[in-house]
Amino acid sequence: MLGIGKSIFRRLLFGHMFTMLLGLCVVGFLLSFLTKQYIVDSQKEELLRKAKRVNLAVQTVVVPDDRVKELLLFFDQTFDARIWLFDRGGKIAATSSKDEVYVGKSVDPAVVRMVLNGEEALLNEPRFEGLKEPVLSVVVPWGKDNEVYGGIVVHASVAGMNETITLMRETILWVTLVGVLLSAATASYLSWSISRPLRRIDKLALRIGHGDYGERIDISSNDEIGELAATINQMADKLQRTDEDKRKQEQIRQDFLANVSHELRTPLTAMQGFLEALQDDLIDDAAKPKYYDIIYKETLHMNRLVDDIADLIKLENDEIVLSRSPVDVRQLFAHVAAMFGPEAAERNTSIEMRTEEGLPDAYADRDRFEQIMKNLVKNAVKFTENGKILLDARAESELLVIRVADTGIGISPDDQEMIWERFFKVDRGRSKKSSGTGLGLAIVRELVELHGGTITVRSEVGQGTVFEFRLPAAQNAIHEGGRQHVEAV
C-alpha cells in the first residue's frame, strides 16, 4: 500500500480497477440473486398452474382407480413433473411414479392442514420424505367446490434450473473479468494521461527552482491540467523576465558606477594636475588665470553631474512629487530661449518659437517642465552650428504636443534607441567645450513620463533632430491671440 501511494498513476489505476471490480461484483451478485429468485418464482407459479389442471382432471374422483393413475402418468410426461395424490388423512393414494415414494406413505401434517383449509401452498423447502433429488413442490386441494378429498402435490426437479443459474453466474463472472480488463486498460490510459503531464510539470518546476526558465510545457488539453500547465508557463515567463530585469539592473548598476567613476576621474585628474603645477609654481603668473578658469569649469561640471545623478535617483525612486498648475507655454519658451540665446549665437544658431492660435496652458510642474525644455534646448545648441532651433507647440485633443527641432548633426539610427540610457553620449569624440554628463535625456524621459506623457525622437544624420513630447493641457486656460507667432531670438 505504501508503494501504491507514492505514485499518482498507481493510485488512479488501482482506484479505478477497485471501483470497477466492486461495482461489477455488486451488480453481478444482485443480478444473480434477483434472477434466481425470478426463475424460482416463475417455476413455482407454473407448477401451481399445472397442479390446478391436474385437479380439474380428477376433481370428480374420490377414490383413485387405474384411470386416474393413467391420467397422472400422462400429466407426468406432459409436464415433466412428479404428481402425488393424498387423502384427508395425509396418506398417499396415487402417484405418477413409484420410484420415489410408495402408496400409503404419509405427507407432512402441516401440509395436510393447509390443504384441508382450502389453501394453496408454495413450499420453499422440502417437506416430503423419499425424494432422491432437490425439487420444487406445490400443493393444492383435491376436490370440487367446497368438498376436499385430499391434496395434489406436484414436484419439479431443480436440476435444469440450477444449470441455468450456474450458466448465468458463469456469464456474469466472465463479463466481470472482461470488465476488469477493460477497466484496467481505460484506467491505465486515464492515469497515464493525467500523470504524464504532471510529471512534465514537476520536472519543469524543478528546473525553475534551479533557475532555468528557458523550457516550456506544451499541453493542449483544455482541462485543469492544461490550465495548470499554462499557469506554470506564465510563471516561468514572469520569472524569466524578472531574472532578465534583475541581471539588466545589475549590469546597469555596474555600468552606472563605472560611468560615474569615469566621469569624476577625468575632471579630478585634471584638477589635481593643475593644482600640483600651481602649488609647485610651475605655471607663470600670466597663465594662472587660465588654469584657475579650467579648474572652475571642471568644478561646475562635477556639480552638474552630481545634481543630475541626484535628480535621476529621485525620479527612479518616485521621490519627486509634482506640483502641477497651468503653465504658459509661450512664456516658458521665451524664458528658455533667452537663457540659451547667447550660447546659440556663439555657434551662429538662431532659436525660434512657434505656437498656434488659442494654445492652452500646460498642466504641469513649472520647474520640472522648464528642466525638460532646458535639457532639450541645451542638447540642441550643443550639436547645432550655423543652423536653427525651433520650439513648437500645438494642441491635440486634451494634450499639448511640444517639439524641439534642430538642424544639427543628427543621430544615427543605431544610437537613437540608446540616447535615453544614462551616460550615453552620441559624439564620443567631441571636445570638452561641448562635454556633458550624459544624463540629460534620461532625466527628460523620466520627467515626461512622470507627467503622464510620452516622448519620441526622429533624426537623420546631417539633417537634424526632432524631440517631440506630449503633456496634459490645462482646461479653460487658453491665451487668445491672432495668427500663430514666429519669433527669432
TrEMBL record:
It comes from the Bacteria. The keyword ATP-binding applies. The chain crosses the membrane at residues 12-34, 172-192. Its EC number is 2.7.13.3. Keywords: ATP-binding, Cell membrane, Kinase, Membrane, Nucleotide-binding, Phosphoprotein, Transferase, Transmembrane, Transmembrane helix, Two-component regulatory system. One of its GO terms (molecular function) is ATP binding. PROSITE patterns: HAMP, HIS_KIN. InterPro entries: HAMP_dom, HATPase_C_sf, HATPase_dom, His_kinase_dom, HisK_dim/P_dom, HisK_dim/P_sf, Sensor_HK_Regulatory, Sig_transdc_His_kin-like_C. It catalyses: ATP + protein L-histidine = ADP + protein N-phospho-L-histidine. It is an enzyme of class 2 (transferase). SUPFAM superfamilies: ATPase domain of HSP90 chaperone/DNA topoisomerase II/histidine kinase, HAMP domain-like, Homodimeric domain of signal transducing histidine kinase. Residues 192-244 form the HAMP domain. It holds the Pfam family HisKA. Signal peptide: none annotated. It is a multi-pass membrane protein. Residues 259-475 form the Histidine kinase domain. It is found in: Cell membrane. This is histidine kinase. It comes from Paenibacillus ehimensis. The lineage of its organism: Bacteria, Bacillati, Bacillota, Bacilli, Bacillales.
